[in-house]
TrEMBL record:
InterPro entries: AKR, Aldo/ket_reductase_CS, NAD(P)_OxRdtase_dom_sf, NADP_OxRdtase_dom. It comes from Kitasatospora paranensis. It is an enzyme of class 1 (oxidoreductase). This is Aldo/keto reductase. It comes from the Bacteria. GO terms for molecular function: oxidoreductase activity. Gene3D superfamilies: NADP-dependent oxidoreductase domain (3.20.20.100). Belongs to the aldo/keto reductase family.
Length: 283
């Protein structure tokens, strides 16, 4: 497996398995299938409500803990946010059945972000987490966090797919030493992604599916990606993308698909901010 090196020296697989929108009753089997075919990066979140199932699959696998890279995420915390961040992390570790996390991400750029981040810095310094980062931070919010705190986020996990490519975001992240990680790499099939003529034609040239082309495109951009599926054959196919490479012309043609616009929701939209701010988790 290819790895990226984070800004604190920790190595992270560039391809992993995500469990967003997988129901808890299906998560254990899906993660078990993923681990069996070679995935070692697992990405979950308190908000997904399937951390316990991920933990069961890890224990069932028998894979040594040091061979795995486990990520979970902190939801928006009520005051006192710094102290609640610690409690939320300990709750996630308990559900996962782990002593430490490899990566802990602030899930949304809302609430008392500074207090939440300083709580995460505490956990990082104590060794409860090997790296800390954020998710859904646009460049302005990311840079603000960096310049006003001691620990620079190792990762920013943001919506990234052929129709919303985030090249400018990636440029800023590289400037500050932050690793871009994609969520929604397949755009959930929107804009006809899985039957797109260009992506289909590129796949035909390599004997690969559209999904495999998209994953390879992300990897060649040095973007960590975490495809999810509950079907064993697709889980296996999604990791089978390290044996071919897209040409420069193919990469350039895919670049032409960028619309520069989210297909899901805009974190600058006041209605989205209000909706996320009202969501609270019993964790």
């Amino acid at each position: 497996m290819q790895h990226v090196t984070l800004n604190n020296g920790v190595e992270m697989p560039i391809l992993g398995f995500g469990v967003y929108q997988i129901p808890p009753e299906q998560t254990e089997q899906a993660v078990s299938e993923a681990l069996a075919v070679g995935y070692r990066l697992l990405d979950t979140a308190a908000a997904y409500q399937n951390e316990e199932a991920v933990g069961r699959a890890i224990r069932r696998s028998g894979i040594p803990r040091d061979d795995l890279f486990v990520t979970t995420k902190l939801w928006i915390q009520d005051a006192p946010a710094r102290e609640n961040t610690r409690r939320a992390c300990e709750a996630s570790l308990g559900r996962l059945g782990l002593e430490h996390l490899d990566l802990y991400l602030m899930h949304q750029p809302f609430g008392d972000v500074y207090a939440q981040w300083r709580g995460m810095e505490d956990l990082y310094r104590e060794g409860r987490v090997r790296a800390i980062g954020v998710a859904n931070f646009h460049p302005d919010r990311l840079v603000d966090l960096i310049v006003n705190n001691e620990v620079t986020p190792a990762v920013d996990q943001i919506e990234t797919h052929p129709f919303f490519q985030r090249a400018a975001d990636q440029h800023i992240m590289r400037e500050y030493g932050v690793q871009l990680q994609s969520w929604g790499g397949f755009a959930e099939g929107r804009n006809g992604l899985f039957t797109h003529p260009l992506l289909s034609a590129i796949g035909a040239e390599h004997g690969k599916s559209v999904a495999q082309v998209v994953l390879r495109w992300l990897i060649q951009r040095d973007i960590v990606t975490i495809p999810k599926s509950v079907r064993a054959e697709r889980i296996a196919a999604n990791i089978d993308v390290l044996d071919f490479a897209l040409t420069d012309d193919q990469m350039a043609s895919i670049a032409g698909l960028d619309t520069g616009t989210s297909l899901f929701f805009d974190h600058h939209d006041p209605a989205v901010v209000a909706w996320l701010g009202k969501r609270r988790l019993d964790v």
